[in-house]
């Protein structure tokens, strides 16, 4: 790539004295971008006609020639630019840089989608673009640009999956959606998986007003149809009907309750002064050597805290059937299951983009924004440092069910 000569830069900047002279609406950057685009369009027409401006037309070009210019304003990531588009007499010239019918250049739509992904409303995006670029953008245009994401969401929701995921976390977020004129609280269910190499993936998003076996059976069958043949461990938060649904589709999957959610529910009515000591005592329960020792620790916990907080031990006993699978694993895999940093990090990212919204007009509007939030969050994900050692444990515990890609 050719570099710009220093002498040329010095000449361009010779009359620049303020930031406005450089970056303002009439600044050098805007003028230079306009001049370069118009020069490129002129070169395109020269290529189309087959001869330079002012030169004799070759025989094959007879009957067609330059025919002045037409004015066109385009939206770019730097704001509006008024261009002079060259024309040919035969009307056969189709510019590549600024195609016919196109009024927004690459980068501008990305600006809108980026702002939308951060939770800004249509009105806020309008104001932001006006303030930064001096560009008037209609709410209808913003809606059309962001609605184009729905096709991407559909492809993402139907993409093929790996045959096996060692751990899949199923969790829920609450969003407000206007439904037949009434704002309803709806649950958005998220499936976050570790693949066999320790990389994190969101397998899908599903919106439902009520959870139950039929809903979860539909979700499981959808995952199966996309190529997911086996889940080694499914971590859930007391989702109604889930164990029955997963047993029907993935009978060998081990269902484990989410320890973090269980602790959170336990702390719902605990004073701040007691929380640190109480959590320390609960750690003895789920970090016990085996289920029998864990139950003994739970009994000790109840003796110590039962009178002050009588609901906590019964809460753990009701969930005990789905706490005990944890004890079958070595400490390394236990930590991956109960330390749900990945889930919590994802939920924080998603709550951040939806917290400014009072409600969504449709389910699709909620899915669109959450998908963009997931896409942004995925850029920062890292493989857990424990995963290499955990792979050996999975291979021993699950045998031929744990298959690395390509094997």
Write the layout of secondary structure elements.
Layout: H1 6-13, H2 19-23, H3 28-49, E1 66-76, E2 79-88, H4 108-117, H5 122-133, H6 139-147, H7 149-157, E3 164-179, E4 182-194, E5 200-208, H8 213-225, E6 230-236, H9 242-249, E7 254-257, H10 259-266, H11 272-286, H12 291-305, H13 312-318, H14 331-338, H15 341-354, H16 363-378, H17 387-398
Describe this protein with a few key phrases.
about 400 residues; alpha/beta; elongated; two-stranded antiparallel sheet; about 15% strand
Content of β-strand: 15-25%
How confident is the prediction overall: mean pLDDT? 79
The N- to C-terminal Cα distance equals: 43 Å
Tally the helices.
17
- Major sheet size, sense and barrel closure: 5 strands, mixed
Whole-number total of structural domains: 3
- Rough outline: elongated
Order of SSEs: HHHEEHHHHEEEHEHEHHHHHHHH
What are the low-pLDDT stretches, counting only 5+ consecutive residues below 50?
none
Describe the strand arrangement of the main beta sheet, using strand numbers.
5-4-3-6-7
The gyration radius over C-alpha positions equals 30 Å
Structural class: alpha/beta
Helix content: 40-55%
The tally of beta strands, per DSSP, is 7
In a nutshell, what does this entry contain?
The chain has 407 residues and is α/β, with parallel strands linked by helices. Helices cover 47% and strands 17% of the residues. Helix 4 (108-117) packs across helix 16 (363-378), helix 8 runs parallel beside helix 9 (242-249) and helix 15 (341-354) packs across helix 16 (363-378).
């Amino acid at each position: 790539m050719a570099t710009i000569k220093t002498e040329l830069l010095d000449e361009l900047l010779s009359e620049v004295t303020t930031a406005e002279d450089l970056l303002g609406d009439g600044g050098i950057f805007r003028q230079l971008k306009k001049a370069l685009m118009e020069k490129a369009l002129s070169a395109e027409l020269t290529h189309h006609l087959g001869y330079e401006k002012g030169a004799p037309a070759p025989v094959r070009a007879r009957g067609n020639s330059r025919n002045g210019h037409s004015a066109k304003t385009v939206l770019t990531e730097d704001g509006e630019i008024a261009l002079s588009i060259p024309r040919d007499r035969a009307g056969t010239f189709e510019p590549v840089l600024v195609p016919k019918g196109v009024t927004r250049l690459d980068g501008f739509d990305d600006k809108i989608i980026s702002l939308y992904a951060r939770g800004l409303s249509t009105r806020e995006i309008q104001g932001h673009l006006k303030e930064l670029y001096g560009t008037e953008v209609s709410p209808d245009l913003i809606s059309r640009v962001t609605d184009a994401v729905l096709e991407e969401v559909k492809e993402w929701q139907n993409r093929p999956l790996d045959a096996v995921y060692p751990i899949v976390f199923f969790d829920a977020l609450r969003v407000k959606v206007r439904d037949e004129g009434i704002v309803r609280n709806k649950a958005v269910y998220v499936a976050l998986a570790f693949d066999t190499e320790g990389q994190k993936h969101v397998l899908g998003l599903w919106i439902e007003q009520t959870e139950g076996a039929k809903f979860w059976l539909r979700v499981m069958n959808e995952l199966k149809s996309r190529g997911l043949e086996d889940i080694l461990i499914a971590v859930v938060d007391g989702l109604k009907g889930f164990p029955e649904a997963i047993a029907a589709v993935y009978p060998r999957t081990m269902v484990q309750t989410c320890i973090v959610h269980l602790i959170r529910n336990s702390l719902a009515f605990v004073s701040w002064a007691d929380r640190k000591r109480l959590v320390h005592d609960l750690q003895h329960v789920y970090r016990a050597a085996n289920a029998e020792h864990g139950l003994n620790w739970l009994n000790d916990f109840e003796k110590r805290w039962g009178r002050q907080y009588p609901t906590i031990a019964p809460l753990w006993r009701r969930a005990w059937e789905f706490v005990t699978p944890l004890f079958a694993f070595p400490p390394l895999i236990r930590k991956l299951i109960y330390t749900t940093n990945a889930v919590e990090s994802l939920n924080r990212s998603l709550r951040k983009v939806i917290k400014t919204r009072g409600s969504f007009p449709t389910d699709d509007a909620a899915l669109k924004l959450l998908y963009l939030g997931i896409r942004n969050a995925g850029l920062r994900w890292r493989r857990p440092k424990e995963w290499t050692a955990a792979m050996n444990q999975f291979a021993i515990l699950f045998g031929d069910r744990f298959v690395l890609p390509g094997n």
